[in-house]
Amino acid sequence: MEQIAKKRKKQYSYHTQKRKKYVLEPGLKGFFCSCNVREKDCVKESYNVLNEYADELYGAENKEITNSADADDLYEEIQAIKSAGSIRRFQVVDSGAKNIVFIRTTLEDPVNLAKAIVNDVFSKKEQKTRYLIRLVPIEATCKAYLDDIKKSFESLIEKYFSNPTTFSIVYNHRNNNNLLKDEVISTIADMVIKKNPEHKVDLTGAQVSVVIEIIRGNALIGIVPDYIKYKKYNLHALCENTNVEKPTAETDTQ
């Protein structure tokens, strides 16, 4: 009887651990990916397009561990990653919001990869995804408090706002009403202008946009070049191929 009890306890522990998965948390870099239907397919498409262009830019990654879009398989993947002593270049995490996928990355500069993708889609007018709609690079994640957002953004100012440029600020929120949109935008704008008074706000053609996505208790910050020009990095809107069936266009929550 004692052996049976131990076996049952072991099985319960295994199945409990099996459901564990990566979650969105402070300190990540990656990609904000949106869809309207079939998140699992969006994850697969995200992996495909990110790996395709990353292989071209940085060389092929070791493929011994297969990226998994199935939450039930993530526990096994985590164990395999730990055994290999490394983490994958791209890995889905639980965003905490419906139809929003976050792909964390080990790349130092996710912006460079996202730019290569949108530039190629825009120039070739070739629709590469059906379920993945927007692919926005995120350079910092933090807790969704104004002080945390300021601190995270401070680390990005030197990189993007030393020289005069035009800029805009985009703020969206999901499952969080604790922050005041106007307060966040004015705070970030003041920080940019303080860095260099020659910066100018441009809401129709900014050279760079500060994209702030609030999801529950987390804030995602991306400094995105030509965000307006490239249709908010909407991969469907960037191309003119109307022969591929597409989900209804996404609407941001602001």
Automatic annotation (TrEMBL):
<keyword id="KW-0694">RNA-binding</keyword>
<dbReference type="GO" id="GO:0003723">
    <property type="term" value="F:RNA binding"/>
</dbReference>
<dbReference type="InterPro" id="IPR040183">
    <property type="entry name" value="THUMPD1-like"/>
</dbReference>
<feature type="domain" description="THUMP">
    <location>
        <begin position="120"/>
        <end position="225"/>
    </location>
</feature>
<dbReference type="GO" id="GO:0006400">
    <property type="term" value="P:tRNA modification"/>
</dbReference>
<dbReference type="Pfam" id="PF02926">
    <property type="entry name" value="THUMP"/>
</dbReference>
<protein>
    <recommendedName>
        <fullName>THUMP domain-containing protein</fullName>
    </recommendedName>
</protein>
<dbReference type="InterPro" id="IPR004114">
    <property type="entry name" value="THUMP_dom"/>
</dbReference>
<comment type="similarity">
    <text>Belongs to the THUMPD1 family.</text>
</comment>
